[in-house]
Prior knowledge:
The chain is mostly beta strands. It has helices spanning 214-218, 279-283; strands at 21-23, 52-54, 101-103, 110-112, 125-129, 132-136, 140-146, 152-157, 170-171, 175-181, 192-198, 204-209, 224-227, 230-234, 240-245, 251-256, 261-268, 271-278, 291-294, 306-307, 312-318, 321-330, 333-344, 349-359, 362-366, 369-373, 378-383, 389-394, 401-406, 409-413, 419-422, 429-432, 450-453, 456-461, 465-467.
Amino acid sequence: GGATTGGRGARPTRDMNPHAHVATDTPVRTAPTDPGTGSTGVPVGGRLRRRWRPVLAAAVAVAAIGGGVAALTTGGVDGSGGGTSPGGAGKGQSTAAPAGALPDGFEPWRGTVPGGREDIPDELRCVARGDALFCGGGGVVATRIRAHDGSRVWTAKSPGVPVQGVHLVGATDDTVLGYRFAAQEVPEGPRSEVVALDADSGRELWSAPSGAQSTAVTGRTMDAVVVGSAVVTVDAANSRFEARDAHSGEVLWTTPFPAGTQCAPVPLRPRLLAMCAADVEVDDLQVRRPTLRTLALSSGTLGRPVAVDGPVVPVGAARGRLVLLSKHYEGTAPAGYDGVARFDPASRKVTYARFDKVYEGTSGMADGTVYVSGQAGLVTALDSATGRRKWSRQTGVEGASGPAAGGGALYFSSATGRVVALSPKDGEPLWATDPRVDALTGEQDASPRVTVAGRAVFVAAATNTLFA
C-alpha cells in the first residue's frame, strides 16, 4: 500500500533513534474530561498480570469507544489485515479476560500515542494480553498501554513513513513484534524490519529485514505472522521464509520459495500455510492461479501445491479450513467479492460457492461467517461454506472494518471512531457511538479496529487515537 497521509492533530515529538525506545510512566494524551491515571498499573519491567474485577452494573463503558484495533482472538494479531486471524490458538498467543469482567480499576479513557513521524499520523492496531494492551502501526513499532486507564508503559517509535495497512505483527507471552520503517534520509540499511521487543520493558531484543511483496500475493499484508512462540517472516529479497524464536531471535529454519514464485505466510492455527503466485502474475498485479501449500512449523518443509481459482483473498478459517473470498473484477479494476473458496489442508481439496450477487466493501470473518462492510454502512453476513446470505443490516458506520467478536456481539468501526455493535444472529443493532475523530472513512480493506477483552472494548481511530 501507499504511504498514509490522513489525519490531523498529532502531538509534536522529538526525533527518535531508529533502535531506541521510550520508557514512560506518563499517560497517553487524554481529553480534559477523561479520568486521571491510577497507580495500580504495571510498572516498567513488571510481569504481565491477569487481575480483573467482576462487573455487575449494566453500564459497561463501551459507548466511549471509537476506531481501529485488531480483533482479539485466541490467535492474537497476525497482521493479516482482514477480520479475525485465521485459526485458533497457538501456544502463548493471547490471553482473554474472563467473560463479564473488566480490568481492575477500569474507567473509559481516550488517548493518542505519538509516533516517530509527527507529520504523518496513522492508525494503530492492538492486542490485549492480561491487563496490558499492545498496539503498533502509524510510526509506532509497538507500545504497551495499561488497559484500565490508557497510560503508556513504554513506546518504541518508527522513524520512517508508515505504510498503509501495516500494523502490529503480533505478541507472545513475553514478546511483542512490530514493523519499523527506515527514515528516507537514511539510505543504508533495510527499508523495513520486523522488530521484537520485550513485553515488560520495551527493550529491543532483535530485528530482521522484511520483504514487501506479500500484499501482491494474498491481497493482505502478511510479511510476518506469529504462530505459537515463533515468528515467520519473508526475507528482504522476497526469496524465502525465515522462522525465528520470537523472543531470542534464534533462526529455527529457512525455506526458499519454489522457483519462479513469490510467497506469503498464511496462518491456519495451529498450522501454517504458504500462499504462492507466479512471478509474472505478481508483476501483473493480478494473481489468477495461486497455490496453497502446508508449511511445517517444526522444519519449514513445504507440502505439495494445490491450485486455487483466483484472484482470491484469505479472510479467515472455519473448521480447520482456510476461507478465501473470490475477487470480482470489472475490466482490470477490482469490484468486490462474488464467491467463497475453502481449502482443507488435510484432504488437499478446494471447494467453491458463489454469492447471490457481488458484495463490495471491506471483508472480515468471525465464527464461521464472512462479513462485508460497504462504504455506506451496509453490513452483510454470508455463510462461509455455502455462500448463502444470512442477513444484511444498514448501519450508520461508513467505511467500517470488522468484525471483532466478543460478549455476544459483533463490532464494526471506522477511522472516525464511530462504532456499532450488532447481534450475530440477525444483525440487530445493539448500540452505536458518535464519531470521535475528524477523519476520512474511504479506506477499504482495513483490518478490524476493535479489540474485545471481557467487557472492555478497545478501539483505534485515525491519528493514532485509542478509546476504551
